[in-house]
Amino acid sequence: MRCHHFESGQCRSCTLLDLPRPRQVARARERVEELLAPYLAVGAAWGAPILGPDGGFRARGKMAVGGTAQDPILGLPGQKLGADLCDCPLYPDGVEEVLEGAKALIRRAQVPPYDVARRRGELKNVLVTASPHGEHLLRLVLRSENALGRIREHLPTLLAAHPSVIGVSANIHPEHTTRVEGEQEIRLAGAPSIAVRTGDVTLFARAQSFLQTNTAVAGDLYRQAATWIREIAEERAVTGAPAPRLWDLYCGLGGFALHAARTVPAAHVTGVEVSSEAIEGAREAADAEGVRATFLAADATAWAIREATGPEGPPDVVVVNPPRRGIGGELAEWLESSGIRDVVYSSCNPETLATDLAAMPSLRIVAGRFVDMFPHTAHAEVVVRLRRTAGP
Fold it and tell me: What is the 3-state secondary structure (H, E, C) of 195-214?
């Protein structure tokens, strides 16, 4: 991938862009496999990396707003806003046009960008979610509701010029922090969610629900987990055991749970996620796909520990896809002592995965794959299949 912003020195967020992609992947894979080597079971095997396109892959654009109301600049949060990056080659076709439409709306509505140093102004960030078939959700992150009247007045012009925008909302973020968005979301026009075909299912992403950045890679990640779960179900069937009960903890929009339920229709699948918005999307997806899966809004760790003491006891299989901090000591301790034989762990931070594995010595990696979710960066992800090799 070529990027004139990188070559001119205006943007260096893709820190490895001057390194050939095969070398990027090889280095990252070697680093991950070396880090996790102490936690491999005898005979464990690493599969081929999960790769996607090297450009045009970002399902979500997060742009900080600088400049003036008459001449807004959209750049990356945390960087000096000197260059406008609407044409970033990481974004799929159509996103640049929507971002330019957002700049035109800013000019017409005269919404002053937020000045971080002076703590003055209104518009902090412009966020865009893109689906593979070219639809978009647009969000404006504002310090207050003061500019909403002007935005509503001029919004029809944007919608007429950009019919791919199926929904618009305002996020109110009054605090002076590094967080990209706040808690309050105000729907301004159109649909509350966007359909994003990911792997073999369609996910329904709402404004404040987490969506994997790289849709193509996420689809193959979900398919890999579903393949492992099917193999587990087939092993059980040989011994006469029933279809597995599966818990997908930190399930988000339900990508892992929905693929598991689709691949093993007889499985009893439950997804748990603290975000009620994400759970609404997961339930919508389950209905649309016609699969049998239950989704609950709850703290994953507290729910699992509590539910495991019930009449059915712990499940046969657990999938975890935690944030960067990992599953943490409490959930790791429960998994270690639970007797559960099979765990699929999808990690966006191999370092915290290693910490969690150290707390679960009875569970060892029997298979794994490096996941290139963010090409051209040092960020690494990995998915591993764990199996209990000793008693808790």
Answer: EEEECCEEEEEECCCCCCCE
For 88-103, write each residue's pLDDT tens digit. 999 999 999 999 999 9
Specify whether 11 is catalytic: no
3-state secondary structure of 139: strand
One of 11, 14, 251, 348 is an active-site residue; which one?
A: 348
For residue 225, the enclosing domain spans: 4-53+214-388
Residue 253 lies inside a defined structural domain of this protein: yes
In a domain, 232, yes or no: yes
Q: Is there a contact between 68 and 81 (Cβ–Cβ < 8 Å)?
A: no
Q: How far is CA 328 from CA 107, 108, 257, 322, 392, in A?
A: 46, 48, 21, 9, 18
Q: Which two tokens stand for residue 125?
A: 């960030």
In a shared domain, residues 107 and 222: no
> 124-164, pLDDT tens digit by residue?
999 999 999 999 999 999 999 999 999 999 999 999 999 99
Output the CA torsion sign for 215, 217, 223, 228: negative
Asked whether residue 285 is assigned to any structural domain, the reply reads yes
In a domain, 282, yes or no: yes
**Token code pair at residue 34:** 């070396």
